[in-house]
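Design a sequence for this backbone.
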């Protein structure tokens, strides 16, 4: 078929072809058909980061980006990358959350022009946020929370017309909040837990679509802009944990869709605006820890959907309306702690209308009157009832025994009288019971033994009388028993000494009598015993010498007689020892001079005689600590008379007598020793069975409220941050009683954090040793978990070893080695169960104010219920450089793996070189480097800081150089023996300890 075209038709057809070609090959169309820029951007991102393994969800688990992101496969198939369906496909989403990424965010991501979602949540990315991200024309979601990003927030991010969500929380961002320019679609701004400064910009009012604002835990100042009341779509507003002052704007009452209002931990003043009563959809109100005054406005009860009402630690006054529970039927948590609220506690009875109520805490107010029996009709879900430190009178209501889910009951510091109702003993789930500082009378019922979950019993300063029931021994998980300043009498029941987990025992100022039995040797973890001012008699039991964890022992003002047992000299951890005002006779045991940590020793007003020992505590003891004894001599600095020569001859005569008596006594002692070993074995089996039945973390220590921890750490301030860890941060703080602590707050967003919390809590709860960090308390709920540990003011060994300002002397390094070896020896060989730490390294060695080293971080510790050579499989193999070689082949842990880590630690202390130092490039490691220099070139590999601290001029001290060389060679020999490749060739910690003690003694002598 033929077609004929006229000239005009040909010209028209040609123009159409030309126009089509121009469109087809225009730059825009060419870009649409070319996705090479996307590939280049992704490769640039990959080049700027590193990763060890993939993320936490099932789809990306164990996927390494370095191996997966290769040009062998289309980039749309790469993990975390999602592309559009157009051709050619373009990257529309990049999701690499929880991928353990390190490095920086490449600015080349701005070339992903079709990108609508960038999610890098929960990694370890550092550096600044690239300003170029603000050029992404389609970006709707930017999620960079929980990284290590620093610097300013790029203003360009607040000038993106497509942005809906920006999440930057939990980083190190600083500077002021950028002023929003064009954010017509923004719904969520979350930049909490950073270091933002300056004022809250009033220009946020431009973002009328905002539903969520979270600027908490920063350093923002100034007042709350009243213009925020114009954000009519707002459902969540958190400005807490800042330094905001002024009054709460009444305009906040315009936010009728608001469900959560968090303004706690600021410096707010004034009264609670009555306009907050307009927030009919409000579910959670946090105004705690401010300076808010006035009364609770009646209009507030219009918030009928309220779940959490938290107004603690303010200056609120006046009564609480009795209709509270009827107005807020969905209330679950009511916290009115530490205000000046007054009136009667009748409003609590109205809370019977709140069927999901879990917590009532009104402690620290001025409530008066009596507690009605209607309290027994409160929610069966109630777990915490705290009304201590008020002016409540009358009796404890019988109905409280109906609250079957109660975990913690605190009514201390009131004016309650009468007997403890027997109905309370029905609270089988109760773990903490505070009834102290009241006027309670009567006896403690034997039914208390039914409360087998109790961890803390605190009834001090009452008028309780009668016998302490023998059923107390049934409370196998009991840790704290405070019954001081009562009128309890009779003997202390034998069953009490069978509670192997007991930590604090305080029975002072009662009327207990009789003897202290040998059974007290069962209390392996006890650290505090106060039996002052009772009527106890007989000899002081030698079983006290078995209490190796004890730090405080007071047996004063009793009727003990006989000699002080030599075994007390084995209490190496004791810091306070008071045996005064008894009838003790004989000499002061010389072993007392070996107690290294005693800072208070009181032996006054006894019948002691003979020479006062010398050294350690006796070098600083005062005369008041020894006065009132009849025939002490020596210690001329205390003006005691010199010892007569006859003392020496008398001692010689006694020695001669022993030559004849000793053989006949020896056979008896051997029999008794065998019998004692048999009994001890039976007791250990019993203790083991008991410990296996204990519940995990919850019962180990009394809970400290979250708000006390927040106060202690200045709202978890960045200024109090001690360490950022893989699963959480550690803050320093001071509790309400002034005790300095370290608070380890777990990041529950990290996989395995809860398991690590339970493991560390479980392990620390079972160990008690001077060279192990002590757990003081825990704080745990569904949204927050923290361990409260003793504070180590000199921080970690790692910071000392590699500090430009601080320097460890040779003796300090040896002391640290010895301290760590003693701690490991306890874990491996002295604890009833063998415990393997699994991650020993300098950052896990903490130093107290006296530079005493203590092992910390038991997050992956393993309890080995088998023999010392058995292995326990684990996926947590510690830290590179300190991991024993066999872990790679067997995947199991043994105590010899800890020994290997200790050996590397010793070598690191001598050389000042990390096992992952860049000088060890794979051809050889730290141990091989030292082997090449040992023993001929030791002085060439030793840390220069040691030499500088020992000598100003080595040439002038050749003798001392030789002594130092021998000492360092001995230490290196220990490190090399401990770090041998074959586990069976390594030393055990029980063999390491005496070697290091010998080395230390040699240093002290020279």
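Sequence:
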């Amino acid at each position: 078929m033929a077609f004929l075209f006229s000239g005009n038709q040909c010209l028209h057809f040609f123009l159409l072809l030309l126009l089509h070609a121009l469109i087809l090959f225009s730059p825009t169309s060419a870009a649409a058909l070319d996705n090479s820029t996307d590939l280049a951007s992704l490769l640039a991102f990959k080049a700027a980061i590193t990763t060890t393994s993939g993320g936490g969800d099932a789809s990306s688990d164990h996927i390494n980006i370095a191996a997966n992101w290769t040009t062998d496969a289309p980039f749309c198939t790469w993990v975390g990358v999602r592309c559009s369906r157009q051709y050619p496909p373009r990257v529309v989403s990049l999701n690499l959350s929880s991928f353990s990424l390190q490095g920086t965010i490449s600015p080349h991501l701005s070339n992903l022009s079709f990108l609508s979602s960038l999610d890098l949540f929960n990694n370890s990315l550092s550096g600044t946020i690239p300003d170029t991200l603000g050029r992404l024309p389609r970006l709707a979601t930017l999620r960079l929370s929980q990284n290590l990003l620093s610097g300013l927030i790029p203003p360009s991010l607040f000038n993106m017309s497509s942005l809906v969500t920006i999440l930057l929380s939990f980083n190190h961002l600083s500077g002021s909040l950028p002023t929003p320019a064009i954010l017509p679609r923004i719904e969520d701004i979350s930049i909490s837990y950073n270091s933002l400064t300056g004022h809250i910009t009033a220009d946020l009012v431009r973002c009328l679509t905002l539903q969520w604002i979270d600027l908490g835990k920063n350093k923002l100042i100034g007042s709350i802009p009243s213009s925020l009341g114009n954000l009519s779509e707002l459902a969540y507003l958190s400005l807490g944990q800042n330094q905001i002052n002024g009054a709460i704007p009444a305009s906040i009452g315009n936010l009728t869709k608001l469900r959560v209002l968090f303004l706690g931990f600021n410096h707010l003043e004034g009264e609670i605006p009555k306009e907050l009563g307009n927030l009919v959809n409000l579910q959670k109100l946090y105004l705690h820890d401010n300076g808010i005054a006035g009364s609770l406005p009646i209009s507030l009860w219009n918030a009928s959907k309220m779940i959490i009402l938290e107004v603690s630690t303010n200056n609120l006054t006046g009564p609480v309306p009795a209709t509270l529970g009827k107005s807020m039927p969905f209330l679950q948590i009511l916290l009115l702690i530490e205000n000046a609220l007054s009136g009667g506690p009748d409003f609590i009875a109205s809370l019977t209308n709140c069927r999901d109520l879990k917590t009532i805490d009104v402690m620290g107010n001025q409530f008066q009157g009596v507690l009605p029996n209607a309290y027994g009709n409160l929610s069966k879900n109630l777990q915490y009832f705290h009304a201590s430190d008020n002016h409540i009178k009358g009796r404890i209501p019988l109905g409280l025994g109906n609250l079957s889910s109660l975990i913690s009951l605190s009514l201390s510091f009131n004016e309650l009288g009468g007997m403890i109702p027997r109905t309370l003993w029905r609270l089988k789930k109760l773990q903490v019971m505070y009834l102290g500082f009241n006027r309670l009378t009567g006896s403690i019922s034997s039914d208390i033994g039914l409360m087998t979950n109790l961890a803390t019993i605190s009834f001090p300063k009452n008028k309780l009388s009668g016998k302490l029931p023998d059923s107390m021994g049934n409370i196998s998980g009991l840790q704290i028993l405070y019954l001081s300043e009562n009128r309890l009498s009779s003997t202390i029941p034998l069953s009490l000494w069978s509670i192997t987990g007991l930590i604090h025992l305080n029975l002072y100022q009662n009327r207990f009598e009789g003897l202290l039995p040998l059974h007290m040797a069962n209390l392996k973890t006890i650290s505090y015993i106060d039996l002052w001012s009772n009527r106890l008699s007989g000899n002081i039991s030698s079983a006290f010498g078995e209490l190796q964890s004890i730090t405080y022992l007071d047996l004063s003002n009793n009727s003990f007689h006989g000699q002080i047992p030599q075994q007390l000299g084995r209490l190496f951890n004791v810091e306070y020892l008071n045996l005064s005002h008894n009838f003790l006779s004989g000499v002061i045991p010389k072993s007392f001079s070996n107690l290294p940590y005693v800072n208070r020793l009181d032996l006054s007003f006894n019948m002691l005689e003979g020479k006062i020992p010398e050294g350690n505590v006796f070098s600083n003891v005062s005369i008041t600590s020894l006065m009132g004894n009849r025939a002490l001599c020596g210690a001329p600095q205390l003006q005691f008379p010199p010892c007569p020569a006859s003392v020496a001859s008398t001692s010689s005569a006694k020695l001669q007598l022993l030559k004849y008596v000793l053989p006949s006594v020896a056979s008896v002692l051997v029999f008794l020793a065998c019998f004692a070993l048999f009994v001890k074995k039976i007791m250990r089996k019993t203790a083991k069975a008991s410990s296996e039945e204990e519940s995990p973390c919850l019962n180990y220590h009394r809970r400290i409220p979250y708000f006390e921890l927040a106060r202690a750490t200045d709202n978890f301030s960045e200024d109090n941050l001690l360490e950022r860890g893989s699963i959480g941060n550690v803050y320093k703080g001071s509790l309400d009683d002034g005790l300095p602590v370290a608070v380890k707050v777990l990041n529950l967003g990290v996989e395995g954090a809860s398991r690590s919390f339970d493991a560390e809590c479980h392990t620390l709860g079972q160990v008690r040793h001077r060279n192990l960090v002590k757990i003081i308390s825990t704080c745990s709920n569904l949204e927050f978990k923290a361990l409260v540990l003793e504070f180590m003011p000199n921080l970690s060994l790692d910071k000392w070893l590699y500090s430009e300002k601080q320097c460890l002397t040779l003796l300090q390094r040896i002391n640290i080695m010895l301290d760590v070896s003693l701690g490991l020896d306890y874990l491996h060989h002295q604890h009833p169960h063998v415990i393997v730490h699994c991650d020993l390294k300098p950052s896990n060695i903490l130093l107290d104010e006296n530079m005493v080293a203590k092992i910390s971080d038991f997050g992956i510790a393993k309890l080995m219920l088998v023999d010392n050579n058995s292995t326990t499989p684990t996926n947590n193999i510690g830290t590179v450089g300190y991991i024993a070689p066999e872990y790679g082949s067997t995947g199991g842990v043994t105590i010899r793996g800890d020994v290997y880590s200790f050996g590397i630690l010793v070598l690191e202390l001598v050389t000042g070189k990390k096992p992952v130092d860049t000088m060890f490039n794979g051809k050889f490691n730290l141990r091989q480097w030292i082997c090449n220099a040992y023993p001929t070139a030791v002085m060439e590999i030793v840390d220069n800081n040691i030499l500088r601290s020992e000598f100003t001029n080595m040439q002038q001290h050749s003798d001392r150089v030789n002594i130092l060389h021998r000492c360092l060679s001995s230490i290196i020999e220990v490190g090399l023996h401990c770090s041998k490749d074959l586990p069976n060739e390594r030393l055990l910690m029980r063999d390491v300890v005496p070697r290091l003690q010998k080395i230390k003694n040699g240093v002290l002598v020279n």
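The mean pLDDT is 84.
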